[in-house]
Design a protein that fits this description.
The complex is a heterodimer of chains A (264) and B (425). With 264 residues, chain A is α/β, with parallel strands linked by helices. Chain A has 11 helices and 12 strands. In chain A, strand 1 and strand 2 form a beta hairpin. Chain A starts with a helix and ends with a helix. Chain B has one domain. A 10-stranded mixed beta sheet of chain B has the order 2-1-5-7-9-11-13-15-17-19, with helices on one face. A 9-stranded mixed beta sheet of chain B has the order 3-4-6-8-10-12-14-16-18, with helices on one face. Chain B is α/β, with parallel strands linked by helices and 425 residues long. In chain B, helix 2 packs antiparallel against helix 5, helix 6 packs across helix 7 and helix 7 packs antiparallel against helix 8. In chain B, 21% of the residues lie in helices and 38% in strands. Chain B starts with 5 loop residues before the first helix and ends with a helix. The chains are: A alpha/beta (264), B alpha/beta (425). Chains A and B meet through helix 3, strand 7, helix 4 and strand 8 of A and helix 6 and helix 7 of B. The structure holds adenosine-5'-triphosphate and magnesium ion. The site of adenosine-5'-triphosphate has 12 residues of chain A, from helix 2.
């Protein structure tokens, strides 16, 4: 099947992961054992699952981190194979990962970082770069809505940020870069109640017809604010169960043991 | 004193044959003294302890041939009094008028009268800097400098003095010697940039009186074939400030030595450097010796080197705290970023402390680019090359922040960034 044909066929499919098998590059450890997952444009999917089940690994592999080897399967963004692209190409194609552990980069100013990222993506897509003035306005506006202090923006990337501030900074980046496919890896962990509300508002503001979300979380609480369309349970490197929002409530109430016993 | 072995004597004779050596007046006295000191110690040799990491041959060879076409002059946005030397020869036509409020500048070649303030400094600070470790190439520069600037700073200089070096001849062997004397409370900024010659040997002696402030920023830029050996000797008096920064780009043999003597209480001495080098031919050595002989003084050494494709960086830094130099605050950091497994950083940090109430720290590290940070940047769409240069510049930032003047720091930052962009891969 040609690319354009596949694109036409899956017009409303944003992310399409098929039979994804991943092992560590340097070790014989297999982490993902055949992940199948489809996120439609305009929808919010949540992934829950026990610690170590492979949720973060999935998000890293999708965004192109080194150290993993894909042994089988594919992952397409709007019909384009992600796994063949460099991380920066995936970003320019519209993929965004809010990290479970945002990275501190001493010596690189937050503003420099954001502007470089935004303009690099725009350039890669053949769009015009944003002027310094427009950029400043844009950042101020997004930062204010997430209650991020202007002073924080002047500091080096994530350096000296509290856990919650780092997570909010991830959402700020997402708001600024306006990706098509947003993956949030435990963005709620470490957030106080108010901050979680802010983050959820930030995500909800971005929900739109043309955008898909994959929200990795351990807690129902976030999903109260960001109502998911579909909930998946990942265990031992696979999606083992898929359902509606009620699945998250069940996890919250009963834990994984019963649910997983039912499928295995 | 043991007589010099015949081979070293021959080597010395070959190196100094035909060099400029005026023998009259105050200069003749200082130069004669230097020559006899040089005759005792000879030129540096590969097995000398102080030259363990840096082979002196390129600096001591009788003759030199090097491509000088890629010298780089910096600080073009800064309004400064420019003094130009071409292949080590003063270029009057290209230089500004040497008059400026707050300071007097005389060329060494013109300072022939017998009573001259520089007689108190010329070769004197260099001589003092010979203990406990000899620095023969500095002695050589004292004896054979063809020219230089003698700058007496009497007040607050209204703008920086920018010494611009231009190399034109691929066999030029320039030797210059500058002296700066800052009177009590005086202030000046000295800039240096460009590649002076096929080989450049220079001394800068700085006498900083009480409450005076001396800033020094220089660029050794771009020329991959550069051979340069510089020495800074400073005497730093009570409540005064001495700050020197060197950005060094490329160069097959660069050795910069700084010998700082803090002799008055409550003084500040900072030296720092940012180095970038690419390839097996690249060798850059910073050798620093700071002596604390007074109370409550602060010294900082901040050196960062980015090395790739088999480049070599060297740092030898010492803090000596003399008896009685209580409340000394000494800080030294030398770090390298090795962009591949072939490059090497050789560091020898030393502390020697003879006072009990002091705070001294030193650290030296070698590391690679942080993969996690690199991935984070790329995951946001920053292309690999750009992400690498952002991280390299971030690494250099701590050194650049030692420069007080933002505009000068930015000038050098842009040049380093430009170098990184051109040396991708
Ligand atoms: N680089 C790595 N080196 C070694 N083991 C790894 C690496 N990356 C992942 N793993 C292992 O793979 C498994 C899956 O890890 P992953 O981080 O994807 O889990 P997770 O589902 O995100 O867990 P959590 O809910 O705790 O965040 C774990 O057993 C983890 O230890
Ligand atoms: Mg995880």
């Amino acid at each position: 099947m040609s690319r354009s044909a596949s694109k036409g066929l899956w017009a409303n499919i944003m992310l399409n992961i098929k039979n994804l098998h991943v092992k560590l590059e340097d070790e014989d450890k297999v982490i993902l054992r055949g992940v199948d997952l489809t996120v439609e444009a305009g929808k919010v999917h949540a992934i829950m699952g026990p610690n170590g089940s492979g949720k973060s690994t999935l998000s890293y592999v999708l965004s192109g981190r080194d150290g993993y080897e894909v042994t089988d399967g594919s992952a397409e963004l709007e019909g384009e194979e992600l796994l063949d692209m460099d991380p920066e190409e995936r970003a320019a194609a519209g993929l965004f990962l809010a990290f479970q552990y945002p990275v501190e980069i001493p010596g690189v100013g937050n503003m420099t970082f954001l502007r470089t990222a935004l303009n690099a993506q725009r350039k890669a897509r053949g769009e015009e770069e944003v002027s310094a003035g427009d950029f400043l306005k844009l950042v101020r506006e997004k930062a204010a809505s997430l209650k991020i202090d202007a002073d924080m923006m002047k500091r080096p990337v994530n350096v000296g940020f509290s856990g919650g501030e780092k997570k909010r900074n991830e959402i700020l980046q997402m708001a600024l870069l306006e990706p098509k496919m947003c993956i949030l890896d435990e963005t709620d962990s470490g957030l106080d109640v108010d901050a979680m509300k802010l983050v959820a508002d930030g995500v909800n503001a971005l929900r739109s017809e043309g955008r898909g979300f994959l929200v990795i979380t351990h807690y129902q609480r976030l999903l109260d604010h960001i109502k998911p369309d579909v909930v998946h349970i990942m265990a031992n490197g696979r999606i083992v169960l898929t359902g509606g929002p009620e699945l998250a409530l069940e996890v919250e109430k009963n834990g994984y043991t019963d649910i997983l016993a039912g499928v295995e | 004193m043991m007589a010099l072995a015949q081979t070293r004597l021959d080597q010395l004779s070959a190196r100094i044959a035909g060099l400029h050596f005026p023998s009259t007046g105050w200069q003749g006295k200082a130069r004669g003294d230097a020559l006899s000191r040089l005759g005792e110690v000879g030129l540096p040799a590969a097995r000398d302890e102080y030259w363990r990491y840096t082979a002196p041959a390129k600096l001591t060879a009788a003759e030199v041939k090097a491509d000088v076409s890629k010298g780089e002059v910096a600080f073009d946005e800064t309004d400064a009094l420019r003094v130009v030397f071409v292949d080590g020869v003063f270029d009057a036509a290209a230089s500004d008028d040497l008059a400026m409020d707050g300071l007097e500048i005389v060329r060494l070649a013109d300072a022939v009268t017998d009573i001259h303030w520089a007689a108190e400094i010329y070769g004197q600070l260099e001589t003092k800097g010979q203990t406990p470790v000899v620095r023969p190439l500095a002695t050589l520069a004292t004896a054979f400098a063809t020219d230089g600037l003698l700058i007496r700073v009497t007040g607050k200089a209204t703008r920086p003095v920018h010494v611009v070096y231009i190399g034109k001849s691929d066999t030029s062997d320039a030797i210059l010697h500058h002296c700066v004397m800052l009177e009590k409370g005086a202030e000046m900024t000295l800039l240096e940039s460009g590649d002076a010659a096929a080989r450049f040997t220079s001394n800068l002696e700085v006498d900083v009186a009480e409450e005076a402030r001396f800033h020094h920023v220089r660029l050794q830029g771009r020329n991959a074939d550069r051979r340069v050996n510089t020495h800074i000797f400073a005497r730093i008096a009570e409540q005064s400030t001495f700050k020197s920064f060197t950005a060094s780009i490329n160069g097959t043999m660069t050795r910069n030595e700084a010998v700082l003597d803090i002799v008055g209480d409550d003084a500040i001495a900072h030296v720092a450097g940012a180095t970038v080098g690419d390839g097996r031919d690249f060798h850059n050595d910073d050798t620093v010796f700071i002596t604390h002989a007074a109370e409550r003084c602060e010294s900082r050494q901040v050196y960062k080197k980015v090395l790739k494709n088999g480049a070599t960086g060297v740092f030898q830094g010492k803090i000596l705290v003399k008896p009685g130099a209580q409340k000394t605050d000494g800080y030294q950091i030398s770090q390298s970023l090795l962009l591949d497994g072939d490059s090497q950083f050789l560091a020898k940090p030393e502390l020697e402390i003879y006072a009990d109430d002091v705070k001294c720290s030193h650290g030296s590290t070698s590391g690679a680019i942080d993969d996690t940070a690199l991935f984070y940047l790329r995951s946001r769409g920053v292309p690999l090359r750009r992400a690498q240069s952002l991280l390299v510049l971030a690494f250099l930032a701590e050194a650049l922040s030692e420069i007080e003047d933002e505009a000068l720091a930015e000038d050098l930052r842009l040049r380093l960034e430009d170098w990184l962009d051109r040396h991708e891969g």
